[in-house]
Request: fold
Amino acid sequence: MEHVDQTIPVDELAAIAVDVAQEAAAHVRRRRPELFGATTPPTVDAAPVGSAAVNPVSTKSTETDPVTVADTETERLIRQRLHESRPTDEVLGEEHGGSRAVPSGVRWVVDPIDGTVNFMYGVPAYAVSVAAQVDGRSVAGVVVDVAREVVYGATLGGGAWVADGDGLRVPLRCNAVDRAELALVATGFGYAADRRRAQGRIVAELLPRVRDIRRIGAAALDLCMVASGAVDAHYEHGLSPWDWAAGGLIAAEAGAVVVTPPPDSRADEGHITVAVAPGIADEFLALLDGAGAREPLT
Reply:
């Protein structure tokens, strides 16, 4: 059991995270039809839709790395609610930034829509992620599977849980798999072509040695899937803190062996994030080492 500083209001932070993440998820569900309609995904040059005063889609690192009005709106909503509850806390978010330096107090790490491409195309696999960190370590985290209306959560030392629409919380535990060759493994890919080539080589090394590979397109959900037993392991290079801050805690509290980048890391540094069921952790990490996957991919 993890030791938690008793001066940290973990239960309060967790309750705030649940409320804020659920409100944000409800906003995302309302926003998608207004932006994109039912069938055709938008292009980067799409005209404004509805009441939006800016183009519905722009890009970040590459032309294949989109951000929508819903991303920026939802992060503003999250920041507003967090400020109302805890006005002195810092916030690090995917769309509106924040200091990468680890503060002395509580820092909230948020991703308003993890899986933006899925969101754009109507693929029902995208999430809102909200985590509270102290000294760069997550102490409370919530991930909402927006389309399925499923809420995952955890507190440091308090275990992990999942709840559906009725709000009943069910404890989470990883699968009891004990052979990596039987493992269903989730992964993800970066947006830059060179990194994708390197990631493709790693997949080619792993694929004959595991049950199969899945690419869901939302790292926060991948990590929660390790916690729930929907997959046995997840690894990915180049995740930012908002990708793993909540999901990594949820996986760890469900019993997974979790490796995360430094809390002040950047995606372009290419550090690996891993969550793996404990019964295959040593074997799977050795497979990653053999494929050269434990080294950063820049």
Summary: Residues 91 and 283 are 37 Å apart (CA to CA). Residues 34-55 have pLDDT under 50 and may be disordered.
